[in-house]
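Chapter summary example.
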Amino acid sequence: MTTTETRPQGGTSGDRGGRFPRSLTGTRVQEFALAGVIVLLVVVGTILKPQTFPTTDNLRAILTQASVVGVLAIGMTFVIATSGIDLSVGSIVAAAGVAGALFISDSSVAFIVGALAFGLLLGTANATAIAYGKVVPFIATLAMLAIARGLALQMSGKRPISLLDLDGVRWFGTGEIVGVPSSVVIFLGVTIGGWVLLNRTRYGRHVVSVGGNREAARIAGVPVRRTVFSVYCLSGLMAGLATVLLCGRLASASPVSGALLELDAIGATVIGGTSLAGGRATIVGTFMGVVVFAVIFNLLTQLNLATEWQQIVKGVIILAAVLIQRPERI
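The structure predicted for these 330 residues follows.
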């Protein structure tokens, strides 16, 4: 797999003189470094917890827990590639789950369609405010964070809704496909689809060029507004899919679920090498970033590290990931 490094002709402010090869090489180096980090973490975990960490059951648990954040992070990669941000995905996960369970909980198919549709609806609201209302992404998605969480609490009466009777929904969280957890297979499928979309289609080139230099992209004929609109719709749809995976695992739709998932998704994306300034994105790196986060917190949990310290570690990791990004891209 390779990373997308499409640039509008003439370069960008952060890529003067067409320094395309060096940027591409830097992203690949970061991907290899992440692979090395994963191997190192596995070795450390095996040494510290030889009885519980290097087991098949624990590996399945790590990947299953990573699948929800992973699906969100793939959508976030497209958003950040355009130099945007989406702070609302965690709250959308809660609202989409409650909406699906509350209004159409009579069948698994209805719940899944409802959750996906509600996630897409709220993502479209973000997209409209940002692309056509010209609201700064940070502000628009921060507002949606509050709106979606409020909707989840209001619709549910501040109580979780049981999904124990929906075997089809529970399969997404606890089922298997050829011995592999279904949520992991879906995450891998989304990752492969995202890689193809970003690296092998005109749309992917448009996404990266919009983030690299919006004015140059517009002059080159890229539909900038539609491209920006689409990435927030995609992020909302991925939040709806993450809802299905999470609700399937918990067998309930809770108005307080999804808290801080947006930070995990952003952190994994940035750690993977996607530039917060836009114009550089890597699905492979995002996938590895998700796995790094999942392995770290699985190990910290097994070491009985307090939750507050786990949050501190998460913040340090995100800060370090931003600091090591190239200065000219920030």
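To summarize the output: The longest strand covers residues 161-162.
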